[in-house]
Amino acid sequence: MNRILGFIKIYLKNAFSAFIQIRYLYYDILSSYRKDPALKGKVFFILELMTYGGLWAMVFHRLAHFLFTLKLPFIPRLLSQISRLLTGIEIHPGASIDKGFFIDHGNGVVIGETAVIGSNVLMYHQVTLGNSNAASSGKRHPTVGNEVVLDAGSKILGPIKIGNHSVIGAGTILTKDVPPYSVVVGNPGKVIKHFGVRVLPQNTAG
Ligand SMILES: CC(C)(COP(=O)(O)OP(=O)(O)OC[C@H]1O[C@@H](n2cnc3c(N)ncnc32)[C@H](O)[C@@H]1OP(=O)(O)O)[C@@H](O)C(=O)NCCC(=O)NCCS
């Protein structure tokens, strides 16, 4: 009996937490306005923003993630795939995304089931938060810290961690942890700056 009650308690707690995350859409909109210099005006930017695939992907995802947390079969995946058809952005309903997330341009983005994304992250088109194939169950996808920028075409693979305030440059392939406040570029990804100071090329990520 205690086990059943414990299960119900966790279920309700997770569902409530995912439900209130729907309000994060407000912060997603604010973040888009702050981070996209192409969005102009104080009123009409809302109309322009409604044409952004990145915003619609988050509307679908916030709802799909809530239903996924309720352990509803099929519907969350259906919503995620409808969103992919409309926007070219594929986010698994299981992915956990904090407030203020903005996907600019968006096409070709893939975010895996066990990915965790911190607050105020900016992501460009063609970014993958994927599995490195090293892990086939459990946590398989990256954890991205707060205020991170994932530039166009970067591929972040495996259950690695990207520290807060880091920038992963365009086209970077990353399979190792990144300390906070780093700039990483290349394949394999190398830290080229740490706390704004240039570091030697042999300092690789992780
Ligand atoms: C990663 C990035 C933010 C680094 O910017 P930065 O800190 O100003 O770095 P710098 O321009 O001083 O470059 C430092 C070195 O890294 C190299 N570098 C920079 N970005 C790189 C990248 N994406 N891949 C490989 N090397 C890169 C530079 O050539 C330079 O090398 P050098 O010292 O041997 O000449 C930036 O280069 C980048 O990739 N921006 C992409 C932005 C984007 O995706 N825009 C899409 C908008 S639609």
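qc> The first helix runs from residue 2 to 20.
qc> done
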